[in-house]
Specification:
Distance between the termini: 20 Å
Largest sheet: 6 strands, mixed
Number of strands: 8
Oligomer: single chain
Radius of gyration: 30 Å
Number of helices: 23
Mean pLDDT: 85
Helix content: 55-70%
Number of domains: 2
């Protein structure tokens, strides 16, 4: 149907509304039964998060209390403002490599400042409604960099697992780290190795025999008691970091200058990119377990607020955590109140039982992280992707090895680019131009198999009509014959159209007019017309009709004139 302006677009999706999931949950009603279920789930998650938060903070080059502050403030704001009803926020193993690098380059102050900057960026992404685009990272990329991070996390814990005394500072890059570790093997501490192995064994056995038991906490408590009763010569949180404070710090930020902001900007961008991907993946996992749908933009706003709050109280980078979120769902958490209570339970531990943490051996926390690293590797997914196609396997392996041997941000960017090129190649191969199937049987076809009715030729385009497929479509449309007085382009099977395709259509239309061929575009949707109108393809240059039959009628009337 001819129009000078395209029709109005449909209503925006739900993600455009920045409404926290907590408000939506409370609108449904909140009583004692829901509070009881949320409290039980919160306590379960807090038990898992306690040792894990301290272990991640230590591995990232921070202090144990930094991990607890992150879980308290980050976890609270992720649930208070988030777009998922079940998301649990806190420090994540995936950030260990980035945070450790930031601490090595810029110190603890640099880490806190980068966390605050990342919070501003994440909130900005959510306010600008960019959450849906973050989820476009190809699956092989996420599997590859997660596996790469797992390898790096385990490598970072070898020293603590073996109780080594290094003759030089431990290098960050894996290829530089391994020779130093190898040279220090004669300093191996058998007691430390036994405690690390015992931690792993307890976690694995409990997961198999009693999965409902919080294996991480039980393992840490058991190993701590063993070290104390045996008076073993091993490093503990107290001997390395001193006693944990039993109070919250006052809010504040490190000294800020333009020079410092510029220095930590790359780290802040990396935190933002990884935090957005990790949190939205975690929310998607929760959606799959519960059948609900999260608001990705609201989730990014919450992640931003959580990172700013964490930095304000001396914490580190916050994101949605898949393992703790899944634990929350399995434990019966119903609303975001569970995540807020989980932060409250960790706060109670800090205020009441912080001195007890001084006795925890670092070997126990290293064992916890070793298990975390092993669980991060999606072995079934890796096997499936390696068998799926050479393209998916290439994206997976390139991302994996770049993560290990180069840089996480570089790995994600290169993996995303490679995955995008692979997608473009596949989509461009799927485009085709063929005879319209609705042509009456009495009509004859031309030598190219195109539908011909008297002086009218019908082309049907099927697939994604975009820059990747323009070349193949152009080779067909260039064969427009001057003996045909009417041309119909059927867009009913076109998935989408971009500006490159619109430019091709414009050139084809002008060529047709020079040859005296009238052009009608049939079955175009709103998005296609927006592209074509922007390129100047409007009546009277062409006609628009809602169906091929109406297009034929319009051309017959014109030919008859």
């Amino acid at each position: 149907m001819p129009r000078n302006t395209p029709p109005e677009p449909a209503r925006p999706p739900d993600d455009s509304l920045l409404i926290p999931a907590l408000i939506l949950a409370l609108r449904e009603g909140y009583g004692a039964a829901r509070l009881r279920a949320d409290a039980i789930a919160a306590l379960t998650v807090a038990i898992v998060a306690l040792p894990l938060s301290m272990a991640i903070a230590i591995a990232a080059g921070g202090t144990p209390e930094m991990g607890l502050y992150t879980a308290i403030f980050g976890g609270f704001f992720v649930s208070l403002l988030g777009g998922s009803r079940h998301q649990i926020g806190g420090p994540a193993g995936a950030f260990i490599v980035l945070m450790a690098t930031t601490v090595a380059l810029h110190g603890i102050d640099g880490l806190i400042l980068a966390t605050a900057m990342s919070g501003v960026m994440l909130a900005g992404l959510g306010v600008l409604r960019l959450g849906s685009y973050i989820k476009f990272v190809p699956y092989p990329v996420t599997v590859g960099f997660t596996a790469g991070i797992a390898v790096i996390i385990f490598a970072s814990q070898i020293k603590e697992i073996l109780g080594l005394t290094l003759g030089a500072p431990e290098p960050g890059p894996l290829l530089e780290k391994l020779p130093v570790i190898w040279a220090s093997l004669p300093t191996l501490n058998p007691a430390t190795l036994a405690l690390s192995a015992g931690t792993v064994a307890i976690i694995v056995v409990l997961k198999r025999l009693a999965p409902a038991v919080p294996g991480l906490l039980v393992a840490v408590i058991a190993i701590t008691l063993a070290a104390m009763l045996g008076d073993l010569p091993v490093a503990t949180i107290g001997s390395v970091f001193g006693e944990l404070p039993s109070h919250l710090p006052l809010p504040g930020l490190p000294e800020i200058s333009l020079e410092k902001l510029g220095a930590v900007l790359p780290s802040a961008i990396a935190f933002t990119l990884l935090g957005a991907i990790e949190s939205l993946l975690s929310a998607i996992v929760a959606d799959g377990m519960t059948g609900r749908r999260h608001n990705s933009n609201m989730e990014l706003v919450a992640q931003g607020a959580a990172n700013m709050a964490s930095a304000l109280f001396g914490g580190m980078a916050v994101t949605g955590t898949i393992a703790r979120t899944a634990t929350n769902v399995r434990a019966g958490g119903i609303t975001p109140v569970a995540g807020m209570l989980h932060a409250g339970f960790i706060l109670c531990f800090l205020l009441v039982a912080a001195p007890l943490a001084s006795f925890i051996p670092l070997a126990a926390l290293a064992g916890v992280l070793a298990v975390v690293a092993w669980n991060m590797i999606e072995r079934e997914a890796i096997r499936a992707l390696l068998r799926a196609s050479r393209g998916d396997a290439a994206v997976l392996l390139v991302t994996f090895f770049l993560t290990i041997f180069r840089d996480l941000t570089e790995a994600i960017v290169v993996g995303f680019a490679l995955g995008s090129v692979l997608f473009i190649h596949r989509m461009s191969s799927a485009i085709e131009v063929r005879a319209h199937t609705s042509t009456p049987p009495e009509n004859d076809g031309d030598a190219n198999g195109l539908a011909v009715e008297h002086d009218i030729v019908v082309y049907q385009i099927r697939g994604a009509f975009f820059f990747g497929s323009v070349a193949s479509i152009s080779s067909v449309l260039d064969r427009i014959a001057a003996q045909n007085r009417g041309l119909i382009l059927d867009f009913s099977e076109v998935i989408f159209t971009d500006s490159s395709a619109a430019n091709l259509i414009e050139g084809m239309v002008h060529k047709a007019r020079k040859n005296g061929v009238a052009v009608v575009l049939a079955c175009t949707d709103h998005a296609t017309r927006v592209q074509l109108f922007a390129q100047g393809i409007k009546p009277p240059l062409v006609q628009y009709q809602p169906s091929v039959d109406l297009a034929k009628q319009a051309l017959r009337r014109r030919i008859a004139q």
